[in-house]
Amino acid sequence: MARIDGRSIGVLIVSNLLGGVGVASGVAVGGLLAERLGGTSVAGLAQAASVLGAAVAAVPLAAMATRRGRRWALSLGYAFAVVGALLIIASAVLSQLIIMLVGLGLFGVAQAVNLQSRYAAADNAPLASRARTMSIVIWATTVGSVAGPNLTAVGDRLGLSLGLPGLVGAYLFSVVSFASAATVLALFFRPMAAPAVPSPTAALAEPSPTAALAEPSPTAAIEPGPTAAVGSALTPRPVGAIAALRWAGRHPVARFAVVLIACAHSVMVMVMVMTPLHMQHHGMSLELVGIVISLHVLGMYALSPVFGWLADRWGAVHTAIGGMVILVVAVALGFLAAALAAGGAEHAEHGGDGGGSTLTAVALTILGIGWSACIISASSLLAGVSSDEVRIPLQGATDAGMNYAGALAAALAGPILAFGDFRGVNVAAVIILIPAFALVLPALRRHIAGDAADTGDAGGAPEPGDAQGDIGENEAPPSGSTGAPFADGARPRP
C-alpha cells in the first residue's frame, strides 16, 4: 500500500501557512488603498482585480505543473505574487491607481497557488487518505488567515518608519511571506514518485502517444498514471483546459465535481461580500462585523480535516451532498436573519436588533462550513483522475472557473442587495446551487454502481476509501469521450 509522503506534505503546509499570511495581510487593506488612490467608487476593484488574477493564473499554472512539475509551478506563482506586492507598494508611492490594479492582479496569483497546493498534496497520497491529506494542507490556511489581518497595524507602522505612505506597509509582510513560500517550495518540495500499479487488463492495449485525446477502442483498458511516462518512450501529450472540461462533461462524477466547486464558491462569495453591508445597513457595529467575518473564515478552514476524514471514510460524493445541504441551511438562516433585521426597527430603538445579528453570525459560520465540505469533497473527486495529462489541466480549469464564477457572483450581489435586500441575496444563492443539485443524481448513481462493481470484482468489501464514486482505472471510456478516466473506485469489466 502506498504511504503518505510526510516531508512533501509538511512543505506544502508551511508554504500554505506563509502564503495565507501574505494574502490576508494585503487583502485587509487593499480596498482602503484603492479608495485612497481612486475614490470610493473604485474601492471594490481591489478585490475584483485579485480574484481575476487568481482566475487567469489557474490554467497556466496547471499547464506548467503538467510539463515541469508542481514544484516549479507553485514556486513561480508565488514569485509573481512577490512582483505584485512590490508593484502595489510602488503604486502607493507614485499615487498610480492603474499600477496598483496590475499589482493586485499579480498579487491574486498567490491565491491560485494556495488553491492548487491541495491537489499537489493529493497527487501521491493513498486513496484511503487522499481527501484527509488535502484537507490538512487547506487547514494550514486558517493560521495565515487569522494572523495576516492582525499584522496590518504593525505593517503600517513599519512602512511609515521606512518613509512609505500609510496602509501600504502591510504589503511588506506579503513580500516576505510570498518570497519565503517560493523558496521553501523550490528548495524542499521533492514529492516521491507514485508507485506504478499494474492493471489486471494491462495486456489488452498499448498506450498511445496521444491517449489523452484519442478516441479509445472498446478494449483500451490501460490508463497512463502519474508515472506512466517514467519507464516508457510513449508519453501522452497534455490536453488543454477546454479539452479537459469536455472530458469531464462526459463523466458524471467529474462533471458534478467541477460544477459543485463553482456553485459552492459562488454561493459563499455572494453571501459573504454582502454581509458587512447588510449588517451596517441595520446599525450593527464594525466590531461585530469583524467578529462575524472571522467566524466565517474559521468555518471555511478550521474543520477541513473533519471533512477530509468524512470524504475518505464515508465517500466524497456523500460528503459533497452533505455540504450542499449545509449551504442550503446557511442561506435559509441568512434569509431568516434578514427578515428579523428588517422587521426589528422597533428593537433598534431599544438597543436590539430582534436577534438578527446573532442569527447572521450563525448563518455565516455555517456557510463557511458548507463551503469547506463541498470544496474538499469535490477536489478529492478530481484528484482521482488517473492521468496527469488530463487531471492537472482539469484541476486548473476548475479553479479558474471557480474564481470567475465568484467574481461574477460578487458583481451581481450588489444590485441584488439594492433591489431585494439581504433576503434577495440569499434567495439568489439558493438558485445558484440548482445546477449542482441537478447533477448529483447521475454522480450518485455512478458512485453506487462503483461500490457494487468493486464488491463483485473483489468477492468482498472494498478497501477503505474505495467508496469515492470514482470511475474505474480499467474501465474503457465511453465512445466519443477523451482522456483517461478516474484512477480508482468502480471497475466494470470492459
Binned, the helix content reads: over 70%
Question: Which stretches are poorly predicted, pLDDT < 50 over at least 5 residues?
Answer: 195-235, 452-494
Helix-strand category: mainly alpha
- Which percent range describes the beta-strand content? under 5%
TL;DR?
The protein has 494 residues and is mainly α.
How does this model look, in words?
The protein is mostly helical and 494 residues long. It has helices at residues 6-38, 45-68, 70-94, 97-107, 109-122, 130-150, 152-161, 170-188, 241-249, 252-281, 286-301, 304-314, 316-342, 345-348, 356-382, 388-432, 434-458. The chain is globular, with a radius of gyration of 23 Å. The model is unreliable at 195-235 and 452-494 (pLDDT under 50).
